[in-house]
Each structure stands twice: as C-alpha cells, then as structure tokens.
Amino acid sequence: GSSSILSAFPHSITSLPMRPGDNIIPVPTALFMVQVKSECHFSNSTRQVHFLGRYIYNREELVRFDSHVGEDLAVSELGRPAAELWNRQKDALERARAAGHTFCRINYKFLESSAVRRRGRGRVTVYPAKTQPLWHHSLLVCSVNGFCPGHTEVRCFQNGQEEEAGVVSTGLIPNGDWTFQLMVMLEIVPQSGDVYTCHVEHPSWTSPVAVEWSEKFSDLENSLCKMLSRLGACVMGLLFLGVGS
Fold this sequence. Notes:
- The protein has five helices and 13 strands.
- By secondary structure, the chain is α+β, with helices and mostly antiparallel strands.
- The protein has two domains: 2-116, Class II Histocompatibility Antigen, M Beta Chain, Chain B, domain 1, CATH 3.10.320; 120-219, Sandwich (Immunoglobulin-like).
- The strands form three sheets. Strands 5, 6, 9, 10 and 11 form a five-stranded antiparallel beta sheet that branches. It has a four-stranded antiparallel beta sheet with strand order 1-2-3-4. It has a four-stranded antiparallel beta sheet with strand order 8-7-12-13, with no helix packed on it.
- A hairpin with a 7-residue loop joins strand 12 (195-201) and strand 13.
- The protein is elongated.
- One of its GO terms (cellular component) is MHC class II protein complex.
- This is MHC class II antigen.
C-alpha cells in the first residue's frame, strides 16, 4: 500500500507520486517539490520503446525505472530504500514493465497526427554576418528556421564546389512550438563574381532548396575604384616630380 511506499523515503517527504496508472497523492509544494517524469523513447516508430520512470526530489533524482532493465534502480543513496521496496511489489513492478505499451504506445497514437507527423517547411535565408568590403574576411550565415521534424542537412558551396573547411554549425535550436532553427556559418573572403550557395535538404520538401548569395562590384564601386586608381597615380607622379626637382 501507499503507507509502506512512503516509509521507504526520508521522513521529510510526506507523500510521493506513483507510477503511471497508480493513484495520485496530493503533494504540498510550499516546503519541497517531488516530480515524477515518464519518458518514452521510440525507435523505428513504435517497434522499439524504451520507457523511463524518473522520481525526483528537489532536483535530485532518487529512483529510476528502466524498461531495459525491468526494475527500479537507485540513482542516489537516498532512493535506495524505495527502489528495494518497489522491486518487491510485484504488481506495481509488472505495471511499470508494461508501461512501454500501456503508457508509451497509447500516447504515441494520440500525438502521432499533431506532433510525430507534423511537417514544417521552414525558410532559408543567406546573409553576411557583418558587411565587409571585398577581399576582406567575412562570415556568411545560412539560416534555416521553422522546420519540423528536426532532421535536416545543410551544405555550403562556393562557385559550385562544396566547402567543408571553415564551416561551423549551431546545431538544432528548438523554437518552443515543435519547430527548429539552425544556422551554418562559413568563413569567406568575397571576391567580385563569387557565388555562394546554401543547399538544404529536409523531409518536408520534395527536392532540396538552394539559396544563392553573391557580392559584385556595382557601377558606382567601379567608378570609385577607377577614380582612386587615377588619383593614386597622380599623387605618385607628383611625388616623383618633387624628388626630381
């Protein structure tokens, strides 16, 4: 019964949440906090299910049920009495062992349409982290935002050749709404005529998405360069003239 379970914990804990399917015992939260976390890890849809039942007191995990092991494990010395007690309660242990089906697979069916099969196409943008003149080192950012699920592949190309050196990724960043964002940064030295391509593959797209970025001399920049070149030649001529006189 619940009284025997509670006796396995320190006297400061007056109640303890039970496993999925057990009665819920009210827990006063003014002085302490007890958490129970049920985790379902799926592989190959629902063919392989790994269930974890974690019991936490004030941020310290005490006991963990692991379906791969089939019994409760003491994570800390404080949880050892409870783990030993729960492992002797055969009915509760059998319910925990069955949670992979009764808890995980059933909840998977409810969440499948809204979460598991959800698709977010995302948006790809390419931009320099900081505007720099040509021939100067710069950082080109390829941003992919709002995609779901979190499986995506991003590659960077310069003039059709894939770049692997100098590529840094932030890794997946959750947006908090089941979608993700990712940024891949490439160190570049932009030259006139160079074309950089961000190549992204994602399950929600029927074909890869490629976004190009390039920085070319504008007509104004060309005129300024010519004017500065002539001005430099004129100054050099005056210097030589001054030295000769």
